[in-house]
Amino acid sequence: MTAIDIQPERPTLSLPPVAPLVLAVVGVALVCVMAFPFGQWRYVIAVCIGTLAGIGLYHAAFGFTAAWRRIVTERRSQGLRAQMVLLAVTCLLTFPIIAYGSQLSELGLRSGAWVLPFGVTAMVGSFLFGMGMQLGGGCGSGTLFTVGGGSSRMVITLFAFIAGSLIGTWNLPAWRGLPRLESFSLIKSFGLPGAVVTILLITGGIWVIARHIELRAHGALEPRRQTGSYVGGPWSHGLGIAALALVCVATILTLGRPWGITSGFALWGAKIAHFAGVDVLSWPYWSGGRSAAVERSVFANTTSIMNFGIIFGAMAAAALAGKFAPLLRIGWREIATAIIGGLLMGYGARLAYGCNIGAYLGGIVSGSLHGWLWGIFAFAGSSVMAKWKSRVGL
Question: What is the spatial distance between Cα 130 and Cα 45, in angstroms, rounded to a whole number?
């Protein structure tokens, strides 16, 4: 996830510094009010969790797109190592929640995990998603927080993401029946202690390898990001990790499932198409249980209201940082790459259980093998596109 560089010579939308902050606060309040009838205070909490995610993602500039690109093209590992710390810390918190979920339910808390099979369809989808995130300039969460932060280009990416997601729901039946591995849970197979040790070994091993790559290429590590201000940012990676780990844990305890993003995009696309007269309810993906989501209010969908929270949280963070300044003119090359990247991400996400948050982070913190496999193939696709962009000067 990377914010788009704002070039001084290009015109920007000039707003009083307080305007985007007021808009963000009003937006969060409005989403809470609209969501309350469908889930009472649980949905209000979900909106607040999304808002925290938007603030943390923006202030810490915490992402996957830039981190994966930099380790491949620049041999810089700070972002990738931060990801491994995020995964390790979050798993230390979520694995016990998942393992002892029945006891937590007695306290009124929820627990849930995504443990899914991984096959050819998910392999292709994650690879396409990895390519798309480098073209689009951000992944699932990156698209949302940069849109909220004022990136005009990422608005185009978001609409293309939604369109790609809708196409994916229409075309998904064609991919069914291809070979796949059965689902595998570290927690169920190795027990809680074994699962924790396994995760620490994997994340620690990748952290060490990434550090070695940077030291070998440059002789020294980049200076760590430092927190400038808790309110106006920037935040260190450590503070960003703490915020995102809290988001992951709070989502499971509140909603009974891991944090996800892109199913909301697919729903938005389906609702738009349905409103336009397209018979999406006849598509296998939207028939049955999902048809109700298309016909109900978007505020009844927990993924959607968390996504709205991310956008408004990032908007508030950008306003507090004094950096909310959307571009008024975007070049044709930026528009083209935003559209292609968004379409690839949207389509790939539907084939592969989601994006870097729902499939990768959500799968890994659930103790599922599919999360790691998703990461491997998405990283491969990301690396191919990052190298190509570097060669052609994009």
Answer: 31
